[in-house]
């Protein structure tokens, strides 16, 4: 009868449990799930258990600094809120609430192409332009217009997601009807579930309008469903993209360009050689190629291949400040987190995301002190 309370949430698992209680199942499974059998999703998380930090003593950690600088921006912690599609359906104007919380924590917020709130709304309402995530779309004229919108809104960092050449099936989303059209009785069942999740229904469905995909204005009708959006994605994401297409991005974007989806040293070197400003070691959170290795497992070889010649970040499986310190100690400049902030947003809106980011920051500082890392220019001894 009694579920978890927001003020008692101490870990990402706690926020996840509260999100599961509050969200309709279709939305929770969308956030929580991965592709196929979800093997890579599980590996992302378990990989962190296989890498140790060494406890160090007699190191002056009276002043611990967790900040880093990326692309001319000072971060209070080496953490970025990763792009999460449809996040505006997890809480009222969800991307705006999450971006406000990220700004308060001194962490960048990266807005998804398929967000509910538009680039302009997030930049205006959050008080700071987000980073912007982009997929390569067949219609290059429309892409150029979208890049121009992001630039006009003040976005300075573009995150180009390269590992969605074709969307991988996610069994949970098929079963729930997220990525297919529902029959009459399934729609009735979903309506009843919405009534049972009355807190979410009032917050999002009643108070959170409009529910259109803000960045896809002009290519999707205002009343488009999730299934409509996925159909558009399947039809419009460009599987012909090669390294040569980066020239198009450079022509239409004046800020930093980060390539997300790098999982091997050869691609990392190619990214560097093509003049990219940064890369994200990422397997799309286990939502694309299932059976691949964990992001953390790929990180050391990629760092060894490119060194400091390009900014290396990572995502996938990061569930605590301890994980952030481990990844930074292994060579990442910062980590991106997606599911953690999505759970926290669903659990408690802006307040939930603030609480979650504060917990991450406190964990990072504590682990730095116990591992003898007064700042991220130092490294712990790894075993």
Mind explaining what this structure looks like?
The structure is a single chain. The protein is α/β, with parallel strands linked by helices. The protein has one domain: TIM Barrel (Alpha-Beta Barrel), CATH 3.20.20. The protein is 44% helix and 11% strand. It contains 15 helices and 10 strands. The strands form 2 sheets. It has an 8-stranded parallel beta sheet. A two-stranded antiparallel sheet has the order 1-2. β5, α6 and β6 form a beta-alpha-beta unit. α1 packs antiparallel against α15, α4 packs across α5 and α12 crosses α13. It is globular and about 65 Å long.
Quaternary status of these chains? single chain
Q: What is the terminal-to-terminal distance?
A: 44 Å
CATH class: Alpha Beta
Structural class computed from helices and strand pairing: alpha/beta
With strands numbered from the N-terminus, the spatial order across the biggest sheet is 3-10-9-8-7-6-5-4
Low-confidence stretches: none
CATH topology: TIM Barrel
Question: What's the tally of helices?
Answer: 15
By CATH, the architecture is named Alpha-Beta Barrel
Radius of gyration: 20 Å
Roughly what fraction of the amino acids lie in strands?
A: 5-15%
Average pLDDT metric: 92
Which descriptors apply to this entry?
383 residues; alpha/beta; TIM Barrel; eight-stranded parallel sheet; two-stranded antiparallel sheet; 15 helices
Set out the fold topology.
Blueprint: H1 12-22, H2 25-32, H3 39-46, E1 68-70, E2 73-75, E3 79-81, H4 94-105, E4 110-111, H5 119-126, E5 131-135, H6 140-152, E6 157-161, H7 171-176, H8 184-196, H9 198-206, H10 226-236, H11 246-252, E7 256-262, H12 265-273, E8 278-281, H13 295-306, E9 311-315, H14 321-329, E10 334-337, H15 339-370
Parallel strand pairs: 3-10, 4-5, 5-6, 6-7, 7-8, 8-9, 9-10
Antiparallel strand pairs: 1-2
Helix pairs in contact: 1-15, 4-5, 4-15, 12-13, 14-15
């Amino acid at each position: 009868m009694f579920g978890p309370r927001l003020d008692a949430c101490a870990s990402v698992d706690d926020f996840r449990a509260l999100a599961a209680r509050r969200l309709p199942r279709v939305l929770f499974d969308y956030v929580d799930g991965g592709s196929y059998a979800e093997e890579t999703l599980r590996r992302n998380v378990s990989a962190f258990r296989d890498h140790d930090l060494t406890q160090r003593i007699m190191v002056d950690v009276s002043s611990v600094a967790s900040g880093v600088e990326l692309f001319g921006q000072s971060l209070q912690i080496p953490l970025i809120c990763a792009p999460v599609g449809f996040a505006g359906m997890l809480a009222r104007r969800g991307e705006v609430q999450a971006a406000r919380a990220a700004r308060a924590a001194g962490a960048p917020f990266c807005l998804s192409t398929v967000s509910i709130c538009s680039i302009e709304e997030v930049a205006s309402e959050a008080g700071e332009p987000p980073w912007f995530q982009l997929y390569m779309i067949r219609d290059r004229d429309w892409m150029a217009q979208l890049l121009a919108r992001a630039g006009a809104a003040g976005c300075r960092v573009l995150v180009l997601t390269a590992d969605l050449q074709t969307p991988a099936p996610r069994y949970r989303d098929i079963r729930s009807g997220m990525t297919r059209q529902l029959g009459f009785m399934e729609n009735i069942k979903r309506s009843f579930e919405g009534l049972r999740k009355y807190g979410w229904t009032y917050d999002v469905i009643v108070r959170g309008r409009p529910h259109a995909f803000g960045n896809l204005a002009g290519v999707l009708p205002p009343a488009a469903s999730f299934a409509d959006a996925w159909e558009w994605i399947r039809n419009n994401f460009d599987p012909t993209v090669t390294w040569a297409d980066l020239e198009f991005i450079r022509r239409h974007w004046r800020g930093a360009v980060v390539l997300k989806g790098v999982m091997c040293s050869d691609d990392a070197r190619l990214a560097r050689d093509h003049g990219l400003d940064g890369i994200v070691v990422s397997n799309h959170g286990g939502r694309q190629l299932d059976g691949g290795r964990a992001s953390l497992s790929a990180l050391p070889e990629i760092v060894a291949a490119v060194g400091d010649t390009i900014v290396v970040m990572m995502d996938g499986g990061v569930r605590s400040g301890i994980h952030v310190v481990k990844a930074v100690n292994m060579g990442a400049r910062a980590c991106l987190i997606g599911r953690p902030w999505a759970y926290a947003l669903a659990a408690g809106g802006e307040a939930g995301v603030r609480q979650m980011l504060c917990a991450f920051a406190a964990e990072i500082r504590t682990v730095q002190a116990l591992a003898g890392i007064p700042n991220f220019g130092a490294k712990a001894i790894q075993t």
